[in-house]
Design goal:
The structure is a homodimer of 295-residue chains. Chain A has helices spanning 16-27, 41-49, 60-65, 79-86, 104-114, 158-170, 180-206, 211-216, 220-226, 233-242, 244-266, 270-292, and strands spanning 6-12, 31-37, 55-56, 69-72, 95-98, 121-122, 124-127, 147-150, 174-177. With 295 residues, chain A is α/β, with parallel strands linked by helices.
Chain lengths: 295, 295
């Protein structure tokens, strides 16, 4: 298997995702030079100190002008503005890709803002993360055995798709392709809904009397269950807003079904409650534990 | 600090909790002889094979008759039946304690069934667990740095409370006391509600089209978030049923607040969504991560 190589890569947003991509591509020998850009100067300096990037560019446009490939690893809500910044600076062969958690809006933005250069925009989503943020949270193994979903269309340059695919495969990820619409529907259910539920749980508990005590007696599973509620609020406000057309229907479905479960409990319908718990455990054990290799 | 010592302990239900208690008390040198009893013969034989117990009793009553202390580690719904089984066999000084996740109902059962012996019943709840069940899941470190909540009342023999406290402290736990009612209200929020939400999430996703694919693209946090939905359905049906008077109001509150969040999202009220996420993260980082020592 030949390794994908790109001489110079611009990372716009050197946080958990951008920094980890930089680290893994450097380790895999895919990239000669990594140029970082973004809003937080202190974070960029930290990324330089950690050796994630080789230099800090003056601006996203400056980084893009000197790169063969640009990775946008910014909150999805900032994608359009960054695309507008870098558009005039892109070379004729520069590939642009992103790491946003929603795809339909990003694809529309790219088409609108990049014009003909949109053919070399490869929409992507590495389905990986932790609850931590910033360059300090980055690590090269983040994408190993994780999925990366690309959502190119018939107008996307196949060579650009191939390069982006090669980079993520070099990071140890399993790369697949689907439409942006399908991506957004699937992720609304598996990622965006759980984040909403976890944030809301912590917020509800925080509103109860004796807040401190409530958390003192949280059981072993509580830290795991609420871990995603420590994810970046700015990033997640962006994501749920960007994907609300897909997210609202699954929230509604969840609300309706939770209400049904609540009613079964109120009615003392032990069988209905137990059946639901049994079904959930069977599905989770089959799909989730199998996949992650837990025993 | 002197170590609490009990010559012979009966463990009724040698699963995750009962088996782990047996393992930790043996390791700490608190107990000379551990007698197991329960419904699943194969599980008891496995517990014997693993060295968690020294022998298998014919019945819970047989185990109780030959012990100085009895730990009930059965689903809360089975507690009354087991108390009725062992009541005639209890010696004049035998201490009985339990590990049930709800306390008000257990306390009422003990008072009704044990009569005068109820004074030596010390209601307890080790707030610890994993999503696994059975003797194979047991391990001696399960209770280290975990809370154990005891809910004795003014009629409970102080010496019995002291012995039970000593055993849990020897297991590495932090022991505290509160009323059964307060226990049930706190645990409804921090433990029972999260389990309901996690079971319901997996069940909702399982009901969507393309079930397999949905779980294929589950993100990194999903396995953590849904881990508690792999807990024993029988045990958890019991718990939510036993504590439904406390649980229903917090489910209702959660439903109402999730609905408000949903509405903010539908109304494009980005600030309201972000404020809620920010508040949740701040609370979780402060109370949960601090407590578990994560960085």
């Amino acid at each position: 298997m030949s390794t994908t190589r790109v001489t110079s890569v611009a990372i716009i947003g050197v946080g958990l995702i951008g920094g980890s991509a930089a680290a893994t591509w450097r380790r895999a020998g895919c990239v000669d030079r990594l140029i970082g850009a973004g809003r937080g100067r202190a974070n960029l300096e930290r990324a330089l100190e950690l050796g994630l990037i080789d230099e800090i560019a003056e601006s996203p446009a400056d980084a893009a002008a000197r790169s063969d490939l640009v990775l946008l690893a910014v909150p999805v809500g900032a994608t359009a503005a960054v695309l507008a910044d870098i558009a005039p600076a892109l070379g004729n062969r520069t590939i642009v890709t992103d790491a946003g958690s929603t795809k339909t809006g990003v694809v529309a933005d790219a088409r609108r803002i990049l014009g003909r250069a949109a053919a070399r925009f490869v929409p992507g989503h590495p389905v990986a993360g932790t609850e931590y943020s910033g360059a300090d949270a980055a690590f090269a193994a983040l994408f190993e055995n994780r999925r990366v979903i690309l959502t190119p269309d018939t107008e996307t340059d196949p060579a650009a798709v191939s390069t982006v695919r090669g980079l993520w495969e070099a990071a140890g990820a399993q790369v697949c392709e689907m439409t942006p619409e399908h991506h957004d529907a699937v992720l609304a259910a598996t990622s965006h809904l759980p984040h909403v539920l976890a944030y809301q749980l912590v917020d509800t508990l925080a509103g109860l009397d004796e807040q401190q005590e409530i958390f003192d007696y949280a059981a072993g599973g509580f830290a795991d269950f609420t871990r995603i509620a420590s994810s970046s609020p700015a990033m997640w406000s962006d994501i749920v807003q960007a994907n609300r057309d897909c997210l609202l229907p699954v929230i509604d479905r969840y609300l309706a079904e939770l209400n049904t479960l609540r009613q079964a409990l109120a009615d003392n319908d032990r069988d209905a409650v137990n059946r639901r718990f049994e079904r959930a455990k069977a599905v989770r054990d089959r799909f989730v534990d199998n996949r992650t290799g837990r025993t």
